[in-house]
Amino acid sequence: MKRLLLAPFAALLACAPNPPAPVKVMALAPNESGAYATVQVELKTVANFANLKGSVAELMGGNRVVVDANDPLQNLNGGIANMTDEQRYEVIVKDKGADVRGNFIEQGGVMWPADFHTWNMVSAYYNFERSYDYFLGVYDGVEPTELQKMRVMYWAYARIGTSEPSTDNALYLSFIKSFVIVPFAQQKLVPLAMNIGVIGHEVAHKSFNFKVMADQGIHPVLTTWSTSSFNLLKSLDEGLADFHGFGVTCLEPAGCRSNFLAASLSDDTLVRMRDVARTDACMDENLRSSFFNSTPDQWVRGTDMYKVGNLIAASLYQAGNRRSGDQGVQQLQKALIKAYDDESPQTPGLRQLLNSNLNTQQYWNLESVTNVIVAHVTDPELKKLLCTEFSTRLQLKCGAFPCPDMPACPVGGRENSCPLLPPLP
Ligand SMILES: [Zn+2]
Q: What is the Cα Rg of the chain in Å?
């Protein structure tokens, strides 16, 4: 923030160089000990460095995003859920925004951001680039084209079904296929756009939306499913986003940081609850009751959505780690991507499970969803550990395997690391 002192020089920089990629630039990123500091990084994909536009992300500023049930335009054609992507974008993005422009001072071949927003935008672009690198790795040889030219609305005004605009957040809005970084108001820690795990989490939402939700801005099940099926879909999306966000942090010199939210969020309880490496992640009776009974609206507004997501993420982390440390975790990152979308009749993916149950939501449940993930793990020992973790932490109906509800699980069963809950009434 002290760099704001340099802002008065910005006017001198109108003719500052706009070097081609790769560009050496200072950003706020984790240093070798994991603390956020000004560090030199390289942007490898910027086509227009000053405007922060490149093959991975394109930043725009001054956008205005409004979702309002009373907006007549948003009620045309039966509402935004019935519109094409283009129509929906048109009626929700009230101001399409304009190019951003960073201000830099060059020092010995390294570009130094000259004001706060330039620090923030450069760091954000870097984080999108690293997130892309991560997914390039876990897509296992398939280019993640859907994660190219990701549209980023920087410092946008976003009012989404509420009376006040959103602050202190970074979001992926699938219904307009855009990332939105909103201004901060209360936050005093590392801005979310500068937090590499947070951007990794948001990029993971885009990957999930593209593959599992068939790239639909508003998938039909989001308006038709209720209680546990809807809740599981949202928790799965959030939990896997935290699991991949954690994966992105592993690319940095400081190594993997499962509590990456701690750098940005002051709510210690929330940070701890979402730590993918927590060993005490267990379904309890309150959470189970909330999961089975909450309405979609209650679920997306509460923290239980993240809690159930964390049970899934922690199961993945613990299974991978128990099998072979970071390597085991990496195997599961790749298995997940394969599980997202798989046309094969023997091992259908989550997308296929979703699509074949548009009107039979009861078949999208904890057992069927975790079974699809397990079915995409090739190492038998890792499969077994994952079944054990899922069964123990999520209190699945399958306490011992083989179990007809989870045919992908080899012989094995629940452990006693979570208190056993009474059977569901
Ligand atoms: Zn999220």
A: 22
